Amino acid sequence: MLLNLHIKNMALIDEIDINFNENLNILTGETGAGKSIVIDSIMLALGGRAPKDFVRQDAEYGLVELLFSVEDEETRKRLLELEVPGIDDGELVLSRKVMGARSISKLNGETVTLARVREIAALMLDLHAQHEHQSLLNAANHLKLLDRYGHEKIDPLKEKVKEAYIKYSKLKEELNANTMDEEEKKRQLDLIDFERREIEEAKLKNDEDLDLEKRYAKASNSKNIAEKLSSAYRYTEETAYEAVDRAIRELTEVSGYDEELSAMADMLAAVSDILNDFGRNARDYMENNTFSDQEFAQIESRLNTVNHLKAKYGSTISKVLTYGAELEQRYDNLLNQEQQKEQIRIELQNQEKELAAACEELSAERKRTAGELSQNITDALIDLNFLDVRFEMVFEKLEHYTKDGTDYPYFNISTNVGEEMKPLWKVASGGELSRIMLAVKSCLAKADKTETLIFDEIDVGISGRTAQMVAEKIHRIGSSHQVICITHLPQIAAMANHHYLIEKKVNNGKTITSIEHLNSEQEIKELARMIGGVEITDTVLSSAREMKELAVQAKVNCVR
User: Fold this and answer.
1) What pTM, to 2 d.p., does this model score?
2) Which superfamily, per CATH, for 1-130+457-560?
3) Banded pLDDT at 370 (limits 50, 70, 90)
4) Are 199 and 324 in contact (CB under 8 A)?
């Protein structure tokens, strides 16, 4: 149930706090007072798009916050499965802060994506926005309504169809991929054969390129290396070695007088050994690391070959070799294409049988559910002054498979005696559509256990006796659900368990929207305004009081 709505800096709203209650909550007010702002704000918090310039011009940000209590155990269990944070205490806070083109949504204080917000919101409430009844004119929505009504039994069957359809589609793709004419097949074989031979003949070895790059760098700089090493050898041989040897002789003559002098002489002897080792290594290196022009050309050619293959088939030798193995497999597959096609064709036929059976099972359950839904909608329509109504769901079969099965169902209706049944979009007027949508919503609310229903101008196009019957129907829905309803009809407003007035005022040169929870006397005055318009006479007030009394009696009759 929606406990509280907090709105700040949205359109004409500076800051308001609305505490909603159980049963039927009615919101009324003059045209332009800001009723649509309340609904737009709720839709925004639930993941909807923000209307252009929705945030007040004098504000840095706009904020909408919804506080729910989660009373239904099944809903609580589903929220726990969705890992909603902090749901253990039975409360859920959804908020959305809008700052220019950016917005931040939070769920119990944790930042979440809009997709996650919409998923959670669908469990908490059902919002009927203005003109939503027009969606009934689209037959594609009829299937969605049916599946939603029978979701407990239909959803597992839909999942079964979806899994079978995915496998079926994959096999179809494989079959199509294995279908080509002989000329194309030959072209593919020739290309694959060329590429695999190119890789095979190169006789690549893992990490060979790393060794080649080192050898190439060494070979291409061999002249410079030789010059520098020869120079270093010459300096040590002619200068450093001779100087160290002379120093050793000098120290040796006096080393017997002091142990420290002897240690220093030993250090110089070690240096002499290192110089000897360096000289020997330098001579060996110069003898063994010479590169002829032929050797350099061979290294360069091999490196070019390796780099060429890496550029064509993979960034490393390992990837090139893997690609080569894949080519072998593709070559064998093409050679055995007909055999593989036949195997895939057999698998596809078997999978189609499985898919067809799953679709039939789903269709059978939908037809059973459609009968139940149609009867419930018929009963609800009779409550809404469709006295001679007949309502049913017609099923047609698609010529192709989809992930949702092969059903194409749509609503048929007849609203008068002797009138043939026709598709809903060919018959219903605007006022009839709004009542039909109300009937559908009342049936869905029972099926999916939605705790809160919000109706924005569900009363469009109705008046008189029909308006009274719609009011009584909304009250009956409110007896088992929390209903928040924006209305212009006094008949509906009179049925309120809780009545809120939305007004537009000017404070300090600024237009703002406010909302007030009315007491009994204030309710009478608001009903009088809705009945009489500008001038509220004693007669109008008396009519409003009488309408409220009749509404109280109607509520008692509804319970009976």
Assistant:
1) 0.66
2) P-loop containing nucleotide triphosphate hydrolases (3.40.50.300)
3) very high
4) yes
Q: Cα(444)–Cα(50) distance, rounded to whole angstroms?
A: 27
Domain(s) of CATH 3.40.50.300: residues in the chain: 1-130+457-560
- Residue 30 in contact with residue 486, Cβ under 8 Å? no
Element (H, E) at 4: strand 2-10
CA distance 294 to 284: 22
SS3 content of the chain, % helix, strand, coil (to 5): 60, 20, 20
Determine phi and psi for 453, rounding to 5 degrees: -120, 135
Which percentage of the chain shows pLDDT scores above 70? 93
Query: How many angstroms separate the CA atoms of 238 and 221, rounded?
Result: 26
What phi, psi does 286 have (nearest 5°)? -70, -30
62-117 pLDDT per residue, tens:
999 999 998 888 888 888 888 888 787 788 999 999 988 888 999 988 998 988 88
Q: Give residue 558's pLDDT.
A: 63
Residue with tokens 């919503």: 441
Tokens 């041989």: give the residue. 237
Q: How far apart are CA 485 and CA 127, in angstroms?
A: 10
Phi, psi of 143 (to 5 degrees): -65, -40
